[in-house]
Amino acid sequence: MDTMEQHQELEQEAIGPALPPPSAAQKSELFEEHNVEYELINGIPCYQPDHVVDGQVQIFERIGYDDKVGGTFLGLSADGKELVVRVAPIDALTHVVRAEAAFLCKVEAELQDWRLFSQVHKIFLTDDAWHMSLYFRGGPTLEQCFAMRNKFTLGTAGRLAEDVLNVIRCAHKHGYLVRNMDLNSFHYDAASRHLFMADISSLVKNISGDDGAPIASYAGCLDYAPCSDDGLVGARQDLETWFYQLVHLVLGELPWGSLSREEAGVKKAEFQKSKEFAELPEVFHKIAEVVIAKEYSVVEEEEYVKLAGLTEQIYKELGGVTDHEENMDFEREPTPDELPRFVACRADEIPTIAEEEEPAVEEENSE
């Protein structure tokens, strides 16, 4: 795997890591060239199935395509690894895909942060595009998990909220804003039994203007949009949108979910005085005191620690979950028919390959 040391930084004004130097290992694990005709759309290749990109990856199918966020494909590496391939125009140094690469390389330099996002497989350049391949991590989206119940218990909602909070905290630590809490941006990894953020196209550098206010705009759905009148997002607003997501998972439906943009904004601003908010457990009120603020204030480290403790209180004290191995609301134990079955026998009863082939040899000799 490419490490952070292999990714030399581009010039200061560019966004994204430089290409790693070619190595013998990379050259030995290449596909034979197989070109399937494709076209460039606004500078981004629209690859077709079975096309081999620079010998590095064989395209399986296209799963996303947008001028602003680049092309997204599923593919295979030469050694059989399943990959997600992100593609950007060759001449756009500040394209979203390069920003994603810069962020992921920073994340991988930290010991545990990589678990919260996808991992970089390779970064390479062709004559007409800039590519980043990621190791594919399967699992349903949080939206799919939520659709199974449409409302989670505090034990499940609290654990999932803790995962999303860790994602936000990690992004902020590296100087980025998330801007999007959409349920489809997060996937549930059944192996680790935690959420990770798969779609990071909304992440941007946390940069403030001359007046100290952030210059990034909100990029998610209306349900979780912050109360700020100008639609700008700082670290505090990221946490506010996270809180609305948590409330959604617990209530099943937000009080402003079916309202127009203007009506939803008014309802959201008055939420802390509403009946729905009053009926939430006290721990939710304590979280709201930290995250819902109109000003663009810096989030201090002790505030992240406080939110982590309050979130833990939701699933431990209120939800009664003290073991992360307990099933989420959308999980179940396998039935006996789904479990693997093994035939028990003594070692001397297990036939060897030679013994299995012997009758066939004797039959040939008898002829």
TrEMBL record:
The keyword Amino-acid biosynthesis does not apply. Residues 1-10 have a biased composition (Basic and acidic residues). GO terms for molecular function: protein serine/threonine kinase activity. It comes from the Eukaryota. One of its GO terms (biological process) is signal transduction. Keywords: Kinase, Transferase. Residues 1-24 are annotated as: Disordered. One of its GO terms (cellular component) is nucleus. PANTHER family: CASEIN KINASE-RELATED. This is Protein kinase domain-containing protein.
